[in-house]
Amino acid sequence: MPAAHPDRGTRPGPFGRALRTVRDNLGAYLVVNAVMYGLSIAGFVTALVFPELNAAQVASLQADGTADLVLSLLGNVWLFALVILGVNTVTVGALSILLPSMIVPFAGIAVFAYRAVDIGLTLAPADRTGWVVLVPHSLTYLIEFQAYVLLVLGAYLLGRSWLRPASVGAPNRRAGYVSGLRQIGRLSLPALVLFVVGAVYEAFTLSYLVPVLVQAMS
Length: 218
What we know:
It is a single chain. By secondary structure, the protein is an all-alpha fold. The chain is elongated. The relative contact order is 0.14.
C-alpha cells in the first residue's frame, strides 16, 4: 500500500486560503475596514445634516430609471436578487474596484472610496419610512460592504506586490503582478459568497419584510 502524502488532508481549502490571506495582512484589512466604513458613515451623517444631498441622490436614481427598475422587480424576488448580484459583482466589484486596479495600481481603491461616500449619502433616511427601511437594510449594508472590503484589500495587495515584488518574494514586477492576481482570486470567493447572501437577503427583505414594516408603522 502506498504511503499517504504527509501534507494530504492538511492543505487549506479555498476559504482557508482566503482566511490566511486576511490573517497575513490583518493590519491592511483593518485599515481598509476603518477607512471604507468610515467614509460611508461620513456620507450618511452628512446627508442627515444636509438632507438636500440625499434628495439629490434619490432624484438621480429616479432620473436614470433605477428606482423604476427596483419597483418593477419587487414582484419577482429571484430576478430581483439576480439583478442585485449582477450590480454588486460586475458594476461595483469587477468594473469599479478590480479592473481599474489591474490597470493602474490602487486605482480601484480610490474609485470605491468615492462610491463608499455615495452609498452613505443614499442610505441616509429622509423620513420615518426611510428609518423603517433602514432597520433590515442595515444588515444588507454590512454583508455587501464587507464583500467590497475584501475586494479592496485584494486591490491593495495587487498594487503592493506589483510595485514592490520583493514584498511577496517575487523576482520582478511581472511576477509580483501575477502573485497579486492570485491573492485577489483567493479573496474573491468569500466576497462572492457574501454578495450572494446579501443579494438574496436584500431582495427578500425589500419584497416582503419592508412593506409589512412600513404598513405596521403607518
